[in-house]
Amino acid sequence: MHGTITPSENWENKLYIARIDKIGLMPPKLIDSVALNTSGNFTYTFDTDPQGVLYQVSQPCKGCNYFKTISGNNENSFLVVSRYEKKENLLIQGHSEELYHLISMTGSDVNSKVLQLRNLRQPITTLLHQANQLKFGSPERNQELKQKIFKRILEEIDLLKSQLQVVLDTCQTPELLVVGIYYLNEAFLGQLQPVQIENYINKLPQSNAILYRTLKSKDLTTTKNKAGLTLPDAKLVDIKGRHLTLNQIPGKYKVINFWASWCGPCRKANINQLPPLSTKLRKHNIPIIGISIDKTVNQWKEALKKDKTSWLQCMEVDPILSGLIKPDLEGIPLYLLVNENNMVVLEARSPVQIELFLKQQIADF
Q1: From the candidate CATH numbers 3.10.20.30, 3.40.30.10, 3.40.50.10330, 1.10.1040.10, the one assigned to the domain spanning 235-361
Q2: Cα 334 to Cα 292: distance, rounded to the nearest angstrom
Q3: Which residues of the chain have pLDDT under 50?
Q4: In the chain, what are the domain boundaries?
């Protein structure tokens, strides 16, 4: 593949190439990177690797690395199919500031169709953008508008599920089948189960491609992610030095937010996305528990002073949860929604996922 990604001072002149081996919320496997020249031009040749079929190409924000870019609604990335047995001249045109939303692909019929599948999600991303832009007017009016937007988002998600299932029902191209399953899993908030896609899995070929093999073995990361995991009663210390444990924090549901002071998307969520969610959760007695994976207490406290968060902020006395969840390896921000028994019911990469999930669980949320 080759093309031009118009540079921006906010983004690194580099693209990361990561291979998707499983369908789920887990970050894909980083395999390579390619530099953009001063004009944003690049050329990259995929290895003739029969193990790979679907790749995520992402551009890191300035000063960030791979793990700090694969998270949240602002993920600056796109999907590419590479078929090792076929040579294609894929041309990509885009802009760093809108890499995910404004991109074109030509020279590869299958990747043009990949982009068409991705574009089925555009009504949802447009509505999410509208919700995030609600800054003016009274808080009550903004909340009313946000409720209307999220109702439309739920309707669009149901429509997206139907559209993807229609495509998958008639699709015979293996590469497009896995892309459709990928986006269907997103529409199900990462909770897609093998039984829901068994007919599509059966259409995949016997192959050395890891993604085909994991799907045919019905090995979705949704069955191995944190959902269903009961968290231990970890010892925590809050910003005032008070000690408490996870079990001592009441709530039918609890939101645990793994973050760090050095994580740009985490800080943005602290300032823009989590405050309105916290207000709504408080009405239903659902606490947010921020757990920092910072190595330095002073950096953690300084970040909290700047971000002015209003919910509980802690660090672990011993890295029990961090050792179990491994957020430093899987990428942050990472959100876990747990029930009163501290069993994980949802693993999410965005506060929006939590809100949409709870709307389906709580009638007046």
Answers
A1: 3.40.30.10
A2: 11
A3: 69-73, 222-224
A4: 2-105, 124-223, 235-361
List, for residues 281-329, the tens digit of each pLDDT value: 999 999 999 999 998 999 999 999 999 999 999 999 988 888 777 776 6
Residue pLDDT, tens place only, 126-176: 887 777 666 556 677 777 777 788 788 888 999 999 999 999 999 999 999
Rounded to the nearest 5°, which phi and psi values hold at 136? -100, 165
Q: Which value, in Å, is the radius of gyration of the alpha carbons in the chain?
A: 21
